[in-house]
Amino acid sequence: MSKHIPTYALNNLSDRQDISPDVLLLSDPINQVKEPLIIPHRTNYYGIGICIGGEAKLTANLETYDIIPGCLIAMSPHIIKQWQYKSDDFQSFAILFTKDFLNVTGGTALERFPFFESVARHIFMLTPAHSANLKDSIQLIKGKLEDEHKYRGEVLRSFINGLLYEVSSLYEDYSRSLASVQTRSQLLAADFKKLVNLHVLQERSVSFYANKLYITPGHLTETVREVTGKTPGEWITEAVILEASVLLQNPALTVAQIAYTLHFPDQSAFGKYFKNVKGLSPAAYRRS
């Protein structure tokens, strides 16, 4: 399905109009981009960075994150992203790269890094020491990116690989500390949202997710509402509409094709579902 979903390439962030880079370092505030990142979108690249100034609010799949200085940011093509807000002084120090660049020799399987998964927590706060270390690592990559020699690509791949393992260690520590302070209800709600990310294109019934978690639909509804303020049905609907909104950006797809992709019985059923939530038909939403 991913081949149908519109994605933005790295040249959306580059000053160069004539190239589509495979690796890019962000160190200055981005005032303009070629595509509107405020709408739901995917990108064709991975990224590791840290917020070094200002603040922002980013929605990644079903979660909305507040980003302030010291936050680690991990992004991948698997995530539907939408920047809800960026302050004028928002600034990140980040390295962005495509899968093809890192895998040119077949040496790195990006799937082994859990922070790139669609169900991961993509933004979390670092300690001052870890934040300084991460900035130092990206600074080293910046120096290698500016070097011009025949083995520049090989050196860059080596340093980016090292950064990924450094972030993997930080992510594992963060995940353990988070799990240790969460209640059973919070853990259950988190597991539910992971399942929604994995199965929502095929399954929209609360009972499906309750069965996966070995609990009753009533227990799931009560727990998720208590923890998140929303029912499981509301989470499921948000995920479906988010995916539909991205698909509707692609003019090559008909509404009927989108309905099929999202496993609706027909275009009419999808149209009623979408209009009930958005107040517009899919065709009207696309025109807007």
UniProtKB/TrEMBL annotation:
It holds the Pfam family AraC_binding. One of its GO terms (molecular function) is DNA-binding transcription factor activity. Residues 190-288 form the HTH araC/xylS-type domain. Transmembrane segments: none annotated. Keywords: DNA-binding, Transcription, Transcription regulation. SUPFAM superfamilies: Homeodomain-like (SSF46689), Regulatory protein AraC (SSF51215). This is AraC-type DNA-binding protein.
